[in-house]
Predict the 3D structure of the following.
Amino acid sequence: MRVLIIDDDPNIIALASFALRGRGIEVIASTVPSEGLRIAQSENVDAILLDLVMPELDGRALFAQLRENESTRELPVVFMTAKNSQSEMAALHELDARGVIAKPFDPADWPARSSLTLALRSRRLGQ
């Protein structure tokens, strides 16, 4: 399994990478949204962890570009955000994201019970 993390905060990338690698998942990461988009389109990844608030290109806009591209249209995307109000969470789910992970998160508990784990399982099952 390969997961692409796109987040402008290197500390979040480090925490998420630590949690994923501890479960045998290969991680590719980018702190620059446009670079993350290029990686998603050119590398074979199984899912994307996408920060909502980033400079240059926010998570919603990047998500829209991922859905417009044939090679990334079906990739499971899980948003990561500190904006974890119920209305924000509902809005992100309406975008057809596979899940939302609230920041901050504890890497010891995550991703075992996270939306990403569910997204990866559904991807493996071809759903």
The chain has one domain: 2-124. The radius of gyration is 13 Å.
